[in-house]
Amino acid sequence: QELVYKLIDIRHRLIQQIPSMPMISPIPHPPEFAKLVQDALNRLYDSPYLQCHPLTKLLVDAKGSRVESSQDLRRLLLHAIRTRRPQAGTPAQAVDWRYYQILELRYIEGLSPAEVMAQLGLSKSQFFRDQAHILDALVAALWAHYRQTTVGGAATASSTEIGAGAEPSVQRDDLAHAAVERLRTEAKWQS
């Protein structure tokens, strides 16, 4: 993962040195997009990192400054997390609350997985299973947002509501791709 950060930093420096060079932004595949989302969530409050993060170019309107773009990406990710909050009247013991609490504690509060497990009283396997499930749903919503905003041209952070209007079959395929990629990275992490 440090290698990825170093490559992004080198890319950032090269872009600054050659400002006249047009930047080609390829369309990512759902598994690549899932990795980008997870990476951005892990560094949610690292503005310099988010300024040159590929998701900034994919999901945020680049008309503002780089600082504004990183703040817009952070707002978009926080909004995506907050849309996962269960509606009023949902029982406190519902699994949806646990999923939301995992997102909130892990990414908004910045707690480690061990701290989240301890606070919610979850086993390691239950925590990672729940986290994977809610991250897949979050990635699918952001992917649908990305696809909706880029169909008509440049992406804008507020042009569509996250999670609205996604085709169920596309969302299911994207979720499956994201789950496969997440499992592949977890397998590498655990070995």
Topology of helices and strands:
Elements: H1 2-17, H2 30-42, H3 47-51, H4 54-59, H5 66-82, H6 95-108, H7 113-120, H8 124-151, H9 168-190
Helix pairs in contact: 2-8, 2-9, 6-8, 8-9
Describe this structure in words.
68% of the residues lie in helices and 0% in strands. It is built from 9 helices and no strands. The protein is globular, with a radius of gyration of 17 Å. Mean pLDDT is 77; it is low at 18-25, 153-160 and 163-171. The longest helix has 28 residues, at 124-151. The relative contact order is 0.13.
In summary, what is this structure?
This protein has 191 residues and is mostly helical.
SSE order, one letter for each helix or strand:
HHHHHHHHH
How far the N terminus sits from the C terminus, by CA atoms, comes to 15 Å
Helix/sheet category: mainly alpha
Annotation, overall tally of beta strands: 0
Low-confidence stretches: 18-25, 153-160, 163-171
Fraction of residues in H or I helices: 55-70%
Computed over alpha carbons, the radius of gyration is: 17 Å
What percentage of amino acids are in beta strands?
under 5%
Mean pLDDT: 77
Specify the overall morphology. Answer: globular
Task: Give a short account of the largest sheet.
Answer: none
How many helix segments?
9
